[in-house]
UniProtKB/TrEMBL annotation:
Family: Belongs to the free Met sulfoxide reductase family.
Residue spans crossing the bilayer: none
GO molecular function: L-methionine-(R)-S-oxide reductase activity
Domain called GAF: residue spans: 46-150
Species: Hoylesella timonensis S9-PR14
Source organism superkingdom: Bacteria
GO CC, any one term: cytosol
Name of the molecule in the record: GAF domain-containing protein
Length: 159
């Protein structure tokens, strides 16, 4: 299956998981798991960081143990939060301040989760291959982030 078809499959599964429960740990865990299942080789590490005050804290993920807290503006994740946009990093070693959770990571994509225009968390994906992520990944992952952020936002809304 080509990359676009795999992303379409991924989006339909994320839509199911985002509506299957109201517990963020369970929903984000299944979303991370299905992302790893659909892209087992391309995604060396895939998971969520969630905004907590002036830090991102590690959420559900698939892959090797990772750093638990990242400050606003630091690393690829903290920079994507500060700039409020997705970042595609072709070579992590060329990114100033990159935080190396694993020495095997070579490239990375970070996509923010927005609620009312505010970053509430992020999808973070690392690959062991250089330059593996492009605009196709960004476009589909932004759609996935939108579905997941809508789910997260519903949890905090008071009617
Ligand atoms: N590389 C990230 C840190 C998180 S790990 O990749 C899982 C960064 O520079 O923010």
């Amino acid at each position: 299956m080509d990359k676009q078809s795999r992303y379409r499959e991924l989006l339909s599964q994320i839509e199911v998981f985002a509506n299957a429960d109201d517990n963020p740990i369970s929903v984000l865990s299944n979303c991370a798991a299905v992302m790893k299942v659909v892209f087992p080789k391309e995604y060396f590490w895939v998971g969520f960081y969630i905004v907590d005050g002036d830090e991102l804290i590690l959420g559900p993920f698939q892959g090797a143990p990772a750093c638990t807290r990242i400050k606003f503006g630091l690393g690829v994740c903290g920079t994507a939060w500060k700039e409020g946009r997705s970042l595609v990093v072709e070579d992590v070693e060329a990114f100033p301040g990159h935080i190396a959770c694993s020495s095997l990571s070579r490239s990375e994509i970070v996509v923010p989760l927005f609620s009312d225009g505010v970053v509430i968390g992020e999808i973070d994906i690392d690959s062991t291959e250089l330059s593996i992520f492009d605009d196709v990944d960004r476009k589909y992952l932004e759609k996935a982030a939108e579905m997941i952020a809508t789910f997260m936002a519903k949890l905090t809304k008071v009617d």
